[in-house]
Design a protein that fits this description.
There is one protein chain. By secondary structure, the chain is mostly helical. Helices cover 54% and strands 0% of the residues. It is built from 15 helices and no strands.
Length: 257
């Protein structure tokens, strides 16, 4: 639970939480390429953030403001700005290897765990990291909806359709079904999968591709997945408002408006 702020704010919201958008972070900080330049990147990124009065958003001292909407909005905006600065310095390959972090502090710690061998937050799951790097081309193709690229990878490595390709343990189907714009990709991918493949795809928090479809209201994708699954048993286990709507849609005739 977020901590409460000091009730005696002596500074205005913008003074306490600056929002300096006139700077291009890439003029001051290089792209993070991995362990090779992580130490230099961290020093320059920390210095850039500190000089703009926002170091609290990565060291944890800028606690969530509670009880004052103006201060909360200023805190949230500044936090989002710091997170955007960090993300701007990450290569596409590194972004795809990360879990989702809601705050700049969470993102900073995750990058430290992954790339800084001197960090107290350092953890290393060699098997997962190697797998995510190996299947990075498939992850990229899936996000782009590039079936021709993905098909070439899958034909060389048929196990790719059932492999966890992200740090969250998501397979290509789970990633693809998160957008209705990629349903052509979902259709082609399902043709390469067995019912057992589809049923076995569960990420590290227990979610399936059907859950992802529910969250994004991708009804067409859910129907395709359910047809391949040949059972609506899993649909009955969904409980959120999104899931309830999706359950009704999946169980309805395909021509229902």
């Amino acid at each position: 639970m977020a901590s409460s702020s000091d009730n005696t704010n002596t500074k205005s919201p913008i003074e306490k939480y600056p929002y300096p958008t006139e700077f291009n972070v890439l003029d001051f900080v290089p792209k993070l390429l991995g362990e090779a330049n992580c130490e230099k990147w961290k020093d320059l990124m920390r210095d850039f953030i500190e000089r703009r009065g926002l170091i609290g958003f990565i060291d944890g001292t800028a606690k969530e403001e509670i009880g004052n909407q103006d201060y909360y909005e200023a805190w949230k905006s500044s936090g989002n700005l710091v997170q955007a600065w960090i993300l701007a310095t990450l290569t596409e390959d590194i972004r795809l290897q990360l879990r989702y972090s809601k705050t700049a502090e969470g993102l900073w710690k995750e990058l430290s765990r992954k790339f800084d061998p001197t960090s107290p937050f350092r953890t290393f799951d060699e098997e997962t990291d190697n797998r995510v790097r190996r299947y990075l081309p498939l992850h990229k193709a899936t996000i782009k909806g590039d079936w021709e690229e993905a098909r070439g990878i899958i034909e060389q490595d048929p196990d790719a359709v059932r492999t966890r390709i992200t740090q969250l343990g998501e397979a290509a189907l789970t990633v693809a079904i998160g957008s209705r714009a990629r349903n052509h990709f979902v259709r082609k991918l399902l043709e390469k999968m067995t019912r057992e493949d589809v049923v076995s795809l569960v990420d590290v928090v227990g979610n399936t591709a059907l859950h992802r479809a529910a969250i994004t209201s991708n009804i067409e994708g859910a129907r395709m997945e359910e047809q391949r699954r040949c059972s609506i048993a899993a649909v009955g286990s969904l409980t959120s408002l999104h899931d309830t709507r999706l359950k009704a849609a999946v169980e309805s005739p395909l021509d229902r408006p």
